[in-house]
């Protein structure tokens, strides 16, 4: 079963995001009062804001961590081990071998602004359109291209059965001892503008959207009054983090939640007769582990 079978791929979702922005831009002439000043987005290349507690050296769950690099390397070790663990499932009547640890994805859109202003009519459109195109699917530990180990690749065939994360990718990481033989590791990867799956700090840790250029260019009614696509359509990954619970006796990841934060900023957009408008929105994308039996059953998957 493909991990993104209901959505297709993230670029298809991004196309929907663009459509939402276009709808917002068209509505601005009839819904948003003229004269509202546009508040520009923060510099997408600004330094990342640390969103989690800093690392404190010590022994957690019987494991000694002297540096933040030790935390990242231990996470990678546990990720790699956990992705060697498989289980048998009944998938729509067919026996299949998938990863033992499966989770569910969810996605929300927040802070949709046109010319720096929020509008109820526009916001009410978002869940209606999003629900029609995004049907949460089953995921393995991110990055994940498929819940079947033999097909787990992202981007241009990058294998993600083993973690791609390096200490250099990480803004901050920390450890908490749960006192029951497990620890929680939380990691915030460094911010990236226009992340590529499996190819940068965010793409080494999350399921990122990938290149937007061809998607933007395919929307014939959209153009820009000045500058290029890359100048006017900024996709900024910043501040997201993931937390996993690890059994230190085995190195197995037992549960976790990955929250990827993406800010999209559109400027100088033209949509038919609407000229030089700006819009922005935030995407909150989560992978939560493990999926419940009920959630898997909704996808016609049951453990054997």
Mean pLDDT across all residues, rounded?
Answer: 83
Give the H and E element order.
HEEHEEEHEEEEEEHEHEEEEHE
C-alpha geometry? globular
User: How is the biggest beta sheet arranged?
Assistant: 10 strands, antiparallel
End-to-end distance: 16 Å
**Pairing-aware structural class of the strands and helices?**
alpha+beta
According to DSSP, the number of beta strands is 17
Give Rg in angstroms: 21 Å
β-strand percent reads 35-45%
Treating each run of at least 4 consecutive H or I residues as one helix, how many helices? Answer: 6
Poorly predicted parts: 1-10, 23-46
Q: Kindly state the percentage of residues in helix.
A: 10-25%
How would you sum up this structure in a few lines?
The chain is α+β, with helices and mostly antiparallel strands and 304 residues long. The chain is built from 6 helices and 17 strands. It has helices at residues 10-27, 68-82, 120-133, 213-217, 229-232, 293-298; strands spanning 58-60, 63-65, 86-91, 94-99, 103-114, 138-139, 153-154, 158-159, 170-177, 182-189, 192-193, 222-224, 233-237, 241-247, 252-271, 274-289, 301-303.
